[in-house]
């Protein structure tokens, strides 16, 4: 301020007068920069619009068919269990620790005249003992579509349920002539639920296998002695709940091959009005938790004088394969016609020079700069979206003949067709085609 009269030379009345002027000018000068002086005020928040659904129950299903005995065999004293036994017992322990979710445990088996049940209720202790100690009374297995259908029917009885299905997931219908139609079988099974209300994650793994392996193409058993054979953990449930389970319960499997269908990962994000902004705009405090962040222009940008804003993204909860450099290249804006904007640049935290001086930035893993060449007449919504990457590993795990795994290596009969059925089930669901969609409201103050 230009007035530098010493306070001692002012009367109490004049002091109050000049103080009032100073405060008024200060407020006018900082009106649209208020939040920029308070970096911590712009905190990373969950993706707006994604309702926080509560995970209330976990249902765990383990295939107890004879084909699983090679994974689940007795272990001699001092020996180590198979890779399957180690991974699954650890997962069961993690599920059991989720006391608030009321875990429930079931074995899959084939329905027979003597016992029509497809699901055999169990307990944590009994299931853990069976997996770690070996299947002693293996049954004929349920067919894959039946397993999916039964799990979905059961979880529909209690909203907030996520199901974990553990099996080799070999599609081997009783009628071999129906094998070609596997995609239809899978789609029909998933149709227990509307696509918008369902998400599927598939985690692949391999384990040493000891005993008779029963090929899906029915060419007769093959004796294996420690060769690697694939098995899978499928996660079914509400899109937001499956994302929670993937990021928490199944986080230890993050390095495994995986595929995700309609999973609502919803990474935390925020508009960072303190990071190198250009133009005249502000970010008002949200009226309620979960609201999309707003960019309010106090002066309308133009093509000659564009405005720029940076969005901070925390992609740490995404599976590594989904947040790869290749996936980041698919990041794009939608609905930009409503508010002329372009995505100018995307870069990781390691390339942000201001990170050392501004610790608030370290809550983000990536940044995206938006450039505005105009502003909407009324409030509009932009969306920052990432395309769901294709799971390239599926082709390498799939085979049309699994009769000689010793020579082939770890393969699963018709896996590509099985997962193509899942893909086709979600084909008309827009949210399944993207990894996330983050809204940003844009408006001009009049």
TrEMBL record:
It comes from the Bacteria. PROSITE patterns: PROKAR_LIPOPROTEIN. It comes from Hymenobacter bucti. This is VWA domain-containing protein.
């Amino acid at each position: 301020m230009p007035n530098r009269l010493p306070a001692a030379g002012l009367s109490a009345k004049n002091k109050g007068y000049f103080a009032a002027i100073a405060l008024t000018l200060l407020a006018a000068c900082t009106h649209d920069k208020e939040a920029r002086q308070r970096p911590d005020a712009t905190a990373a928040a969950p993706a707006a619009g994604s309702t926080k659904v509560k995970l209330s129950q976990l249902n765990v299903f383990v295939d107890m068919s004879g084909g699983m005995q090679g994974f689940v065999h007795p272990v001699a004293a001092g020996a180590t269990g198979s890779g399957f036994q180690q991974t699954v017992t650890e997962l069961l322990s993690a599920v059991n620790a989720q006391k608030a979710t009321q875990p429930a445990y079931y074995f899959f088996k084939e329905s027979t005249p003597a016992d029509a049940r497809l699901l055999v209720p169990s307990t944590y202790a009994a299931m853990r003992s069976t997996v770690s100690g070996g299947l002693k009374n293996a049954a004929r297995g349920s067919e894959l579509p039946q397993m999916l259908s039964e799990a979905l029917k059961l979880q529909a009885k209690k909203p907030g349920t996520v199901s974990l299905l553990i099996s080799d997931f070999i599609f081997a219908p009783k009628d071999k002539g129906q094998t070609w139609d596997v995609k239809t079988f899978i789609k029909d099974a998933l149709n227990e639920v509307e696509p918008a209300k369902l998400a599927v994650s598939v985690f692949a793994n391999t384990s040493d296998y000891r005993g008779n392996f029963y090929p899906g193409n029915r060419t007769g058993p093959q004796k294996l002695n420690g060769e690697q054979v694939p098995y899978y953990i499928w996660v079914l449930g509400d899109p937001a709940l499956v994302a929670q389970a993937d990021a928490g319960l199944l986080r230890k499997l993050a390095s495994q091959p995986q595929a995700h269908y309609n999973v609502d990962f919803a990474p935390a994000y925020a508009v960072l009005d303190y990071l190198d902004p250009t133009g005249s705009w502000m970010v008002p405090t949200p009226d309620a938790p979960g609201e999309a962040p707003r960019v309010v222009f106090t002066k309308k940008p133009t093509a000659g004088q564009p405005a720029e804003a940076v969005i901070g993204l925390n992609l740490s909860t995404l599976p590594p394969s989904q947040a790869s450099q290749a996936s980041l290249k698919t990041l794009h804006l939608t609905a930009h016609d409503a508010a002329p904007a372009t995505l100018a640049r995307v870069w990781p935290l390691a390339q942000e020079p201001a990170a050392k001086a501004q610790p608030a930035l370290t809550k983000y893993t990536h940044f995206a700069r938006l450039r505005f060449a105009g502003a909407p007449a009324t409030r509009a919504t932009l969306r920052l979206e990432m395309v769901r990457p294709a799971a390239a590993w599926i082709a390498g795990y799939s085979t049309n003949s699994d009769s000689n795994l010793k020579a082939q290596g770890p393969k699963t009969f018709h896996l590509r067709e099985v997962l193509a059925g899942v893909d086709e089930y979600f084909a008309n669901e827009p949210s399944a085609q993207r990894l996330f969609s983050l809204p940003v409201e844009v408006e001009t103050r009049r």
